[in-house]
Design goal:
single chain; alpha/beta; eight-stranded mixed β-barrel; 9 strands; globular; binds ligand C2E; binds magnesium ion; EAL domain-containing protein
Length: about 270
């Protein structure tokens, strides 16, 4: 009886694994050439000043629309691309497209700035910073236009290398934001050690629930620490006016979230811009 149970358990286990790996394999195969087939695009979400409501920048977010698979979310295809190495081309495409589109948008919105997400895999390239600076030079885009968003876990893979990259970028005028801060096992000391301009406070900070009081204290003190360290703060996932008012009370500088705008095509955002 025991042997049969074990066998059946393994059977189900393997089937799940197979399905997963087949889907993963399908994604990997289909991701090949997705840019050339024009299935990739960027959506942009504004980041606004908490007190004035003015938009200071947009974050570029990758979208993949496949003819059969439909819209595949970045949380699904980016991990696949990271495992397969396709993230290098994907990351290059996202950076170049974000810079080109934002530069073009400056005709209508002269102060437009763009945030681009960076994968941990990209940050481990020995020449990551040089490649970004080369792209900016090739496209004749001022480095001040760009903020790169790195996550805590990507930096932790090789702190020394990450710091070298980030310092090189900042010396050239690119700004650096720490994304999703507070989502994992965040250490406050990281904020003092990394060459950063901005901390993006993960939206889990704003969630209501049993731990709301503790999270509130953490949020308040993270904003205070960031200010003492001369880092600006962006709250992610701001979904209603009450959250925005609370962030203003706490001294948070900027906000991003559905309450301000959903991610949208850049040209559509330009007409809505505040
Ligand atoms: P992220 O960088 O933290 O981006 C913010 C995510 O939160 C986006 O999801 C955005 O649509 C979502 N969001 C914005 N406002 C709200 C809100 O008010 N409520 C809620 N519930 N969600 C909100 P998205 O576009 O699905 O992207 C997910 C993640 O995929 C990003 O998280 C980022 O880590 C990654 N990603 C997206 N584009 C790229 C890219 O070009 N390169 C890399 N390496 N990663 C990317
Ligand atoms: Mg981000
Ligand atoms: Mg984020
Ligand atoms: Mg987040």
């Amino acid at each position: 009886q025991h042997a049969i149970d074990q066998h059946e358990h393994l059977g189900i286990f393997n089937e799940t694994m197979l399905r997963r790996s087949q889907y993963g394999h399908t994604l990997e195969t289909q991701l090949q050439g997705a840019a050339q087939r024009q299935e990739l695009s960027l959506m942009y979400q504004p980041i606004s000043d908490v007190d004035t409501g003015r938009w200071i920048a947009v974050e570029a977010l990758l979208r993949w629309q496949h003819p059969q698979l439909g819209a595949v979310p970045p949380s699904t295809f980016i991990p696949v691309a990271e495992r397969s190495g396709q993230i290098y081309q994907l990351g290059d495409w996202a950076l170049q497209t974000a810079l080109r589109e934002t530069q073009a948008a400056r005709a209508l919105w002269p102060e437009a700035h763009v945030n681009v997400n960076v994968s941990p895999v990209q940050l481990l390239m020995p020449d990551y910073a040089e490649r970004v600076l080369q792209t900016l030079a090739d496209l004749q885009v001022p480095p001040q236009l760009l903020t790169v968003e790195v996550t805590e876990s990507s930096v932790m893979q090789d702190v020394d290398l990450a710091c070298r990259h980030l310092r090189k970028l900042r010396d050239a005028g690119v700004r650096v934001a720490l994304d999703d801060f507070g989502s994992g096992h965040s250490s406050l000391s990281l904020l003092t050690e990394l060459p950063l301009d901005t901390v993006k406070l993960d939206r889990s900070f704003l969630r209501e629930g049993a731990q709301a009081t503790a999270r509130g204290a953490l949020l308040r003190n993270t904003i205070r620490l960031a200010r003492d360290l001369h880092l600006s703060t962006v709250a992610e996932g701001v979904e209603d006016a009450a959250m925005l008012a609370r962030l203003s009370d706490l001294g948070c500088d900027y906000a991003q979230g559905y309450h301000i705008s959903r991610p949208d095509h850049l040209e559509d955002l330009l007409s809505l811009r505040r």
